[in-house]
Each structure stands twice: as structure tokens, then as C-alpha cells.
Design brief:
Length: about 325
């Protein structure tokens, strides 16, 4: 889909027709067809990159200047509010009069930026739209990190601030640990995606600022500088959250190990306690002709008492040792 944003009489308007207005400031390509790509390339004099070229990770492919036009790309998290987020590349083609964005998934921040540019007259040019997009990406990333940090705090409280006197069923405990491990791993995956986005945006802003272009006015230079500083601070916060994720993963795995040790301890105690009674039952089950206890009136209760005592003595000893 091809969307053309133009600044007409001080108002930002959109157009879906394949007709390039004179006052166009932003062309947004969403899963563009070959016809739409050819239209943009012929009228704007640029080369629209493919999804494969935008997905390359080296800086020489993501940050390029050609004939006074800046070609940029960065990964963006798509479907970030769902349970199945993924990274999708987005391309930015920036010149003095026109910004072209190339994307392959629907991203809410683009509509947010369009609404913002429509209400802010200072952003109604290519550099203004580009700056607004960078700021929106930073704001979105900050919101995501805040939400992930809140989720990690809730998991941490559930793990370390529960009542240790409340003994839960082992199956329920194992299921809770499994769910906690899954939640922590999901947050770690989201942090990894956020790191990729911050890395891409963190490269773009300094690169644009370092280029000798007079059409980047000082107001936008200061805002792009703020974007770079925000990215640096968000990277520090993301590193803090990632460290917390590693800590919680180690803690959950430690609790799982403790659960396994408790299970093996119970099995060990049961097996050891069961050995002496088995031995005594084996002794009195032997088929010798002359066994004095067979002729005793109280021989059977005596045998049962010996078997019970042989099981009770190890239990008392284990309890005295503090094994359970």
C-alpha cells in the first residue's frame, strides 16, 4: 500500500492515488507492490530497498549516503502487544524535501506520528517527520521496558516474598515453577528484541547528525541528540533488566533443583527405612524346621513388633539428624 502525506495549506493530508503532489513530504510504503515501487523510484529518483537488503545487519548496508540522499534501516518490533512479537525491518530514505519509509508490517507508531505531524506545524517537512519517527520509536521502547520491568518485579515478589510456611502440593509447585520459568524466558526474549531495536536506532541518529547537511536545522539536531542520549540511557536500563532476568532464571532453576533434591531425599529415606523390615521379614520367612519363635504363643506378635521396630528406629534417627 502506498500512502502519500503532503503539506497542503498548512494541513497534513493523505492520498492513496498514484499521483505525486508537489508538496509531498512523506511517502509510506507498506508491503508495496512492484507497480508502487516503480512509481516511487521514477518520481522520487531513489531506489526502494527490498526486505532482504533491509534485513542485513552490517552498518555499511544499514547506513548509506548516495547522491545527497540518506538510506537507513533498522529492525522494529511488530505485534508488540501480542504474545507473538517479532522483528521486522523498516527502511528510511531521507532527503531535503522528502522522506520515504519502507515497511512490511502494520505498525501503530506510524499512524501516531502522522497524527502528531498533523497537529505540529514545526514537523511538516521530511526532517521533521523523520525526527518524530525516531522519537516515537524511543518512546515506544521506553514503554516496553517499563512494562517488562514491572512484570519482572511481580515475578520477583512472587518468588522471594511468598510465605515459606505455606507448603504447596509438589505437582502444583512444579507447575508454578514451570510457568515462572516460561514467563522469565519470554521477557528475556522481548529484551533481546528491544536491544536489536535500540542498536539500530542508536546507529541512525548519530549517523544523521554527523552528516554535513544544511537542511537538518538546529532544532532537529537538538532533538536527534536527545534521541541519542535517550537510547544510551535505555540501553543501560535494558542491561539492568537483562541482568535481573539472568538472576531470576538462576533463582528459578535453583528452586527446581531444591524440589528435585527434596524428592530424592524422600525416596532415599523411604528406601532406607524399608530395608530393615524387609530383612526381618526375610529372616522369619525362612523354612527351617527348628525355629524357637514358631512354638512361642506370642511368636507372631513378637515378629511383627520386631519388623515395626526395625522401621521405626531409622525414622527416629533420621528425625534426630534433621533430615526431615
Amino acid at each position: 500500500m502506498l500512502t502519500i502525506y503532503r503539506n497542503s495549506n498548512g494541513l497534513l493530508e493523505t492520498s492513496q492515488s498514484l499521483d505525486l503532489p508537489a508538496d509531498v513530504i512523506w511517502i509510506d510504503l507498506l508491503n508495496a507492490t512492484d507497480r508502487e515501487k516503480a512509481f516511487v523510484e521514477s518520481h522520487a529518483g531513489v531506489l526502494v530497498p527490498s526486505v532482504e537488503s533491509l534485513g542485513e545487519i552490517e552498518s555499511s548496508s544499514r547506513l548509506v549516503v548516495k547522491d545527497g540522499t540518506i538510506y537507513l534501516s533498522a529492525p522494529i518490533v511488530a505485534q508488540g502487544d501480542t504474545t507473538d512479537p517479532f522483528l521486522s525491518p523498516v527502511g528510511f530514505i531521507l532527503s531535503a524535501k522528502l522522506l520515504i519509509t519502507v515497511r512490511f508490517v502494520d505498525l501503530a507508531i506510524f499512524q501516531t506520528v502522522a497524527d502528531r505531524v498533523a497537529s505540529d506545524k514545526t514537523l511538516r517537512n521530511s526532517t521533521g517527520v523523520f525526527t518524530a519517527l525516531m522519537e516515537a520509536l524511543v518512546d515506544r521502547g521506553a514503554d516496553v521496558l517499563e512494562r517488562l520491568g514491572s512484570e519482572l518485579d511481580q515475578i520477583s515478589r512472587a518468588i522471594f516474598r511468598g510465605d515459606p510456611r505455606m507448603v504447596r502440593h509438589s505437582v502444583q509447585s512444579n507447575e508454578a515453577l514451570r510457568q515462572t520459568l516460561t514467563a522469565v524466558g519470554r521477557i528475556g526474549d522481548r529484551l533481546s528484541q528491544a536491544r536489536d531495536v535500540f542498536l539500530g536506532v542508536g546507529r541512525i541518529a548519530p549517523f544523521v547528525l554527523g552528516l554535513p547537511h544544511d537542511w537538518i536545522v538546529p532544532a532537529f539536531e537538538s532533538r536527534l541528540t536527545s534521541v541519542s542520549k535517550d537510547i544510551a540511557s535505555l540501553n543501560d536500563y535494558e542491561a539492568h533488566l537483562y541482568t535481573k532476568v539472568q538472576f531470576l532464571l538462576d533463582a528459578v532453576l535453583g528452586f527446581i533443583t531444591i524440589e528435585q533434591n527434596d524428592l530424592f531425599k524422600v525416596l532415599t529415606i523411604v528406601s532406607v527405612v524399608g530395608i530393615p523390615p524387609t530383612l526381618m521379614a526375610g529372616v522369619y520367612g525362612m523354612n527351617f524346621r527348628f525355629m524357637p519363635e514358631l512354638s512361642w504363643p506370642w511368636g507372631y506378635p513378637f515378629g511383627l513388633a520386631i519388623i515395626a521396630l526395625s522401621a521405626l528406629v531409622p525414622l527416629i534417627w533420621f528425625k534426630w539428624r534433621g533430615w526431615f
